[in-house]
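Lecture notes, unit on protein representations.

Consider one protein chain, 198 amino acids long.
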Amino acid sequence: MKKRLLFTAVLLCAAVSLLSAQQLHYGLKADLNMFKLNGEGIKSNYNMGGRLGIFATYDFSKKWGVQPELLFSQASAKRGDDFSARYIHTSNDQANKNIKLSYITLPVLLRYNINKMISVNAGPEYSYLFYANENLLTYNRSAFKRSDLGIAAGATLTFDILHVYARYVLGISDVNNIDDRYQWKTQQAQIGLGINFK
């Protein structure tokens, strides 16, 4: 038992030393998020939202690294004028036109550092819908699936402790929870600011 504890302690110390030696940074970030939902019964236009959260970057070489993030995301969409015509048997005729959506979002991005100032990144982004104010369907049924998977890509400019970034996220999941006839997919365009604490 003592040997296992000693071995675990040695591994933790080695991991901490390795992470310290390589470039590990973390901080806060916020961005403006232009959110678009494409699909039948929905108005396909960009709506302003925002995201706020934490991030970490770990460069395992001068050129390559990873960047996980944990974000709270606010987004909005609009019910289309043809919604009741598309979903005749399930639609709520008194439904709100504006839809507010709140997500917990987890991007895990691969970074490529062009130089000390410029990096590009890409990778998967998972979002979990924990709140929606929509009442599109009768009997309080939810029109949106909880999970949304997307592919994110963008670029970052780093200025000492500050960085600015732009990113595009293409949703690859169908978030329509009503039926299988029509697919709803998300698109997002973001511009934001991050502050490195370390």
